[in-house]
Amino acid sequence: MRLSALSLGFLSVALAARPFLNEADTGIEDVFGALPAGTLPELSRIVGLSDFDWAARRYLNISAYTYYRNGAAGEWSYRNNLEVFHRFRFRPRVMVDITNIESTLPTTLLGHNFSAPFFISPCARGGLAHPEAERGLVRGAAAENILYMPALFATLSIEDIAAAKTEDQVVFQQVYLDSNDTATQLLFDRIERSGAKAIIFTVDSAADGNRHRAARFGVGSADSSYSLITWDIYKQLQNMTSLPIIIKGIMSVEDARGAVAAGAPAIILSNHGGRQLDSSPSSLEVALEIHEEAPEIFTQTEVYADGGVRYGADVLKLLALGVRAVGLGRPFMFANAYGAEGVQRAIQLLKREIAIDAGNLGVADLKAINSSFVKWTPNLWL
Ligand SMILES: Cc1cc2nc3c(=O)[nH]c(=O)nc-3n(C[C@H](O)[C@H](O)[C@H](O)COP(=O)(O)O)c2cc1C
Ligand SMILES: *[C@@H]1O[C@H](CO)[C@@H](O)[C@H](O)[C@H]1NC(C)=O
Ligand SMILES: *[C@@H]1O[C@H](CO)[C@@H](O)[C@H](O)[C@H]1NC(C)=O
Ligand SMILES: *[C@@H]1O[C@H](CO)[C@@H](O)[C@H](O)[C@H]1NC(C)=O
Ligand SMILES: *[C@@H]1O[C@H](CO)[C@@H](O)[C@H](O)[C@H]1NC(C)=O
Ligand SMILES: *[C@@H]1O[C@H](CO)[C@@H](O)[C@H](O)[C@H]1NC(C)=O
């Protein structure tokens, strides 16, 4: 397409005129704007995941809110994670019997049954939102039978989180590792004893995160050292535990291939919620790269993805490319300001959005969604 000087001029004016919206304006300000700071809106009147961000911003103190909210540097990746979904339009199909769609949400992750193809991504310091800290997340996940991934740097210990699980509840434990094999072995043994069913090894944070917003309040990354992380080390780690080790933080097709070659049972496409390297790609862009260059990867290992997911429609776009399950971080941390009930409501809202959006998209069976339901030419105006 040829762009004339006039349309280029119009483009820059249009771009300059469009402000970034942390949450789209859907009227929450009109309904709850008069609530005094430090109070939460009634939970039953929260209508979507973005509402939890608005509510937490009013309720938490600024350093606690900033720890959850911040992204790296100019936060271009943070914003891109949120905005990228809207650059790709659906290709809805009609005249499809979708009346059974809800029954197709349950899925398995590494052989474990869950009620929906989304999970709670590992986020440190749950105690900044609620005195019950990660208990709210583990109990909310149990009530709705979705997967929770506790973070190593959670407010509560691995053992305290395990103690809050229901009898059959499955969690996957996240870790950061330094190069101390003795400490790693002790940690892996602790995780096995806690009953976690997999280890999530975060590899996107080899160096400290460059976090401007957080630095103003001294609430930067909990993992600030330079870490030695290589494929050889990953292979050694696999010898140190009987648990599957999932790699979190894949951002290119080359590394997705490397993970398959190293025998990773699952990978998580993630730029850490835009908190580590600004200008790192969103997981939707990475999933698209894999779809175009090495689609077989989606069947060679289980591919999960997170970052910027706020709506059922966002989940559908990732699943359309072959992603098996989608993670959310901040929405659940903010929902946890209400404790377990808030986390449960967030899960219920997202389940319903996935089902009704899939229905309107003309998807009869969520497991059979494929890339034909999205137009993969980006709309550059957004
Ligand atoms: C407050 C906060 C703490 C986080 N802590 C960790 C962590 O300890 N380990 C980790 O692997 N990822 C961590 N992450 C990244 C999340 O696992 C996830 O990749 C990210 O939050 C997804 O983006 P979203 O918040 O837009 O959903 C953290 C994210 C946030 C927001
Ligand atoms: C998972 O679900 C399948 C199908 O419903 C069932 O056969 C299987 O026993 C379940 N597994 C567990 C561990 O509950
Ligand atoms: C903010 O809230 C957190 C969690 O309640 C608390 O630990 C912290 O001390 C508070 N910080 C300030 C500056 O009030
Ligand atoms: C490695 O970890 C072990 C167990 O925590 C500890 O005793 C030891 O001091 C650590 N070694 C180094 C070099 O830090
Ligand atoms: C893992 O253990 C197996 C069997 O003991 C051994 O053959 C292999 O070399 C080990 N791999 C690494 C990377 O340590
Ligand atoms: C994708 O799904 C549509 C609708 O179910 C179906 O008609 C089409 O054959 C599928 N395409 C592929 C490549 O499987």
UniProtKB/TrEMBL annotation:
SUPFAM superfamilies: FMN-linked oxidoreductases
PROSITE patterns given in the database record: FMN_HYDROXY_ACID_DH_1 (PS00557), FMN_HYDROXY_ACID_DH_2 (PS51349)
Molecular-function GO terms, alphabetical: FMN binding; oxidoreductase activity
Cofactor(s) needed by this chain: FMN
Segment forming the signal sequence: 1-16
Keywords: Flavoprotein, FMN, Oxidoreductase, Signal
Binding residues annotated for FMN, in chain numbering: P122, C123, A124, Q174, T202, K248, S270, D306, G307, G308, V309, R310, G329, R330
Active site per the UniProt annotation: H272 (proton acceptor)
Residue positions binding glyoxylate: Y67, Y176, R211, H272, R275
Domain FMN hydroxy acid dehydrogenase: 41-379
Gene3D superfamilies: Aldolase class I
UniProt cross-references to InterPro entries, sorted A to Z: Aldolase_TIM, Alpha-hydoxy_acid_DH_FMN, FMN-dep_DH, FMN_HAD, FMN_hydac_DH_AS
Family the entry assigns: Belongs to the FMN-dependent alpha-hydroxy acid dehydrogenase family.
Protein name (record): FMN hydroxy acid dehydrogenase domain-containing protein
